[in-house]
Amino acid sequence: MPNLSTSYLGLELKNPIIVASSGLTDSVEKIKELEENGAAAVVLKSIFEEEIVMEMDEQMLNMTSRPYIYPETFDYMSNEPEEDLVRKYLRLIKEAKAAVSIPIIASINCVSSQKWTYLAREIEKAGADALEINFFVLPTDLNRSVDENENIYYEVLKAVKEQVALPVSLKISPYHSNLAHMVKKLDDSGAAGVVMFNRFYSPDIDIHNLSLNTGQVLSGADDFKNTLRWVGILRDRVKCSIAATTGIHSSESIIKQLLAGADAVQLASIIYKEGAGYIDTLTKEIYSWMEEQGFENLRDFQGKLSQDKSNDPAAFERVQFMKHFRNFVM
Q1: b/e code 3-38 from CB counts within 10 Å (16+ = b)
Q2: Which CATH class is domain 6-325?
Q3: Considering the entire predicted model, what is its pTM?
Q4: CA quadruple 95, 96, 101, 107: dihedral positive or negative?
Q5: pLDDT at position 214, please?
Q6: In 3D, which of 109, 20, 118 has the Cα closest to residue 76?
Q7: What distance in Å separates the CA atoms of residue 237 and residue 183, rounded to the nearest whole number?
Q8: pLDDT computed for residue 63 by the predictor
Q9: 58, exposed or middle or buried, with CB in 10 Å at 0-12, 13-18, 19+?
Q10: CB atoms within 10 A of CB 78
């Protein structure tokens, strides 16, 4: 039987399927079910910087209402706060590590490098195998330069790496002025991996009630193609691990990402739709494809069709439709 094992963030995984940060990974019971059905690792549901800071500020406000508070107390609070939300998250890490054998990757959704970075150290102490930073600031400030926006990523990575020895990955968006350069700079700055790409909340408009509402929450089966492009371009150009995510709904799309050069994939939407048992279906289909192709290990074909190894490297950079639409017939 083919060997599906792979290496991601320095972690050895039994197969390339990681369950992405979501409501699927917010309890020990759910994580155990995912492991039983073949998940190779899980990324815990993100804890948000705003939630952490709000609890810190609320606790400090409560303290200021009491008499005889020593100034040193505030120094302690700013460095080692113990909020209910934080304790709950750390307990989830500890209990999940005790309950399953697959890697547990913690996740923090942040917008700055302020206040919250102490939590990375607590996450490491709790036993997490790695930390994923889910980071994006929508560049709507007309007075902020590209460098000012993107420097926040490097500041966060630097602040976190000063706290921990854990492998740290960044889940990023494709919305950068020079994505390849940015990933290379993150790689040079010590990122253990990048996850491409975030899926964001998008507004929609109700034309009958003339109001804003939520756009489609789950990804679609064709949403993986932009990730495929960038996985293929970056393979072998950076040292860090690459995980592909968004729109990966089938064994075929997983195989495509691996051929382009991904070390692993992260799934969520399709597991919501099909249930945890679908992971077993996906792995069996990958096994069958590998046997059909004569591949014994994932490394036999990982990156085989990356830009560097493709016989048509320009295909990864071709963005105009003219050639393809010229002879298109409905």
Answers
A1: ebebebbebebbbbbbbbbbebbeebebbebbbebb
A2: alpha beta
A3: 0.87
A4: negative
A5: 74
A6: 118
A7: 10
A8: 40
A9: exposed
A10: 12
Range 211-237 burial, b when 16+ CB lie within 10 A, else e: eeeeeeeebeeebbeebbbbbbbbbee
Q: Which residues of 302-323 are buried (b: 16+ CB within 10 A; e: fewer)?
A: bbebbbeebeeeeebeeeeeee
Q: Cis (ω within 30 of 0) for the bond into 197?
A: yes
Structure tokens at 16: 């390339």
321, 243, 29, 55 alpha-carbon torsion, rounded to 10°: -90
Query: Mind listing the pLDDT tens digit for each residue in 237-265?
Result: 999 999 999 999 999 999 999 999 999 99
- As given in the structure block, the two tokens for residue 111 are 């917008």
Asked whether the beta carbons of 94 and 32 are under 8 A apart, the reply is no
- Each residue of 265-276: pLDDT tens digit? 999 999 999 999
pLDDT over threshold 70, residue 167: yes
Q: Please state, as a whole number, how many other Cβ atoms lie within 10 Å of the Cβ of residue 134.
A: 21
Short-list 244, 208, 242, CA closest to 223: 244
CB atoms within 10 A of CB 124: 18
Enter the tokens of residue 42. 């899980």
Helix/strand/coil for 131: strand
CA distance linking residue 223 with residue 270, whole number of Å: 12
Identify the pLDDT of residue 71: 40
Domain ranges of the chain: 6-325
**How many residues are present in the chain?**
330
Residue with tokens 């493709």: 310
**Nearest partner of 129 among 144, 145, 107, judged by Cα:** 107
Output the six-digit token pair for 129: 């195998």
Angle at the Cα of 15 (from 10 to 16), degrees rounded to 5? 70
CA–CA distance, 122 with 190 (Å, rounded to integer): 20
